[in-house]
Amino acid sequence: MIGYLRGRLAAKRPPVLLVDVGGVGYELEAPMSTFYQLPEVGGTVELVTHLHVREDAQVLYGFANEAERQLFRNLLKVSGVGARIALGILSGISVENFVRCVQGDDVASLTRIPGVGRKTAERLIVEMRDRLKQIGTPLAQALPAGAGGARDEAFGALVALGYRPAEAEKLLKSVTADGLATEEIIRAALQAAAR
Questions:
Q1: Domain residue ranges in the chain
Q2: CA distances (Å), 118 to each of 48, 57, 71, in order?
Q3: Does domain 150-194 have CATH number 1.10.8?
Q4: CATH number of 4-64
Q5: What is the pLDDT of residues 79-101, one digit of tens each?
Q6: Rounded mean pLDDT of 61-77?
Q7: Residue 24 has pLDDT above 80, yes or no
């Protein structure tokens, strides 16, 4: 089992990336959340990995952090969710916001993720609710301490305005939200989008 890779980023073409580790090129598939954190081609990259073995293929998946990998592995245990859908979920929503959706029974936000229909979203909520309670760190660290919050409300507003969850998350990361009201965070994120 390959659990971790550190090497030179040789190529990146979403969802595939190539990492040169000591002269051996490892081809991995990764969610967009990981791609956003990658250095330029030629830079050093560190990824935690998951080797997914099927009858017809062996696919290596790479993740920026352990929380993403744990969520991916747990999504694979949900009936009807395969590696492609799990990768799509991680590409469409952050671990923290996925946890919020599950805890808040937010089917609407999950159905905005490409490839996730209403039945799949409902199944994810039912099957992942208990798993999230059983998972230790680091995924447990992604569990929100309190419900709501200005940043969470801003995320919901951006998604309601038509931004994909991954785009909304990226916009919010570009804004310093400390001490700002929801409206101010939204305004700053929309200004960042206009640039």
A1: 4-64, 67-142, 150-194
A2: 31, 29, 20
A3: yes
A4: 2.40.50.140
A5: 889 899 999 999 989 888 898 88
A6: 92
A7: yes
